[in-house]
Design brief:
about 170 residues; alpha+beta; Ribosomal N-acetyltransferase YdaF; acyltransferase; transferase; EC 2.3.1.-
Length: about 170
């Protein structure tokens, strides 16, 4: 399946709301998202991404089959980590297991490394999210280790995994 990353537009809010109003999707994300996720929540998120500093926040919609199937972003860190960025993403359940996210991760990493001074992109999926770990591995990320008891999600203490991709590995 072919996918593309592109800048957000406000008209994407409905597709965003549809995907994020799914508990299975939200169970693999950090806390803080409203449930159910409304179209207005989507408008607010997209507005924030469009007004963010483009050298600090690299935020994109992922499109497949002519529609937005979800979100990917790379976020510059601060201080001594200013040339490091964290990758985050999610995809609508109907597109799980189709290779869309692996392709989107490759596209966004190439873009960030080409357009910025970022040297390292990392991701911290929940250890139980084997599909996300596999996406990162297929996109060329290296597994660096397990962050034990690193988060509390849905009332459970969980491990996270650390993956990274360096600019020279693209």
């Amino acid at each position: 399946m072919i996918c593309k990353i592109r800048k957000w537009v406000l008209a994407d809010a409905a597709d965003l709301a549809a995907a994020l109003s799914n508990r299975k999707v939200q169970d693999n994300l950090r806390d803080g998202l409203p449930y159910p996720y409304t179209e207005q929540d989507g408008v607010d998120f997209i507005s924030a991404m469009l007004s963010a500093d483009e050298n600090e926040t690299f935020a994109f919609a992922i499109t497949a089959d002519g529609r937005v199937v979800e979100s990917i972003g790379v976020f510059r860190q601060g201080n001594i980590h200013s040339q490091t960025a964290e990758l985050g993403y999610y995809i609508a359940e109907g597109y799980w297991g189709k290779g869309v996210m692996t392709e989107a991760v490759k596209q966004v990493c190439e873009y960030v490394f080409e357009k910025s001074d970022i040297l390292r992109i990392y991701a911290e999926p929940f250890a139980y999210n084997t599909a996300s770990c596999r996406v990162l591995e297929k996109a060329g990320f290296q597994y660096e280790g397990t962050l034990r008891n690193n988060a509390v999600k849905n009332g459970k203490v969980i491990d996270m995994k650390m993956y990274s991709l360096l600019k020279e590995e693209i």
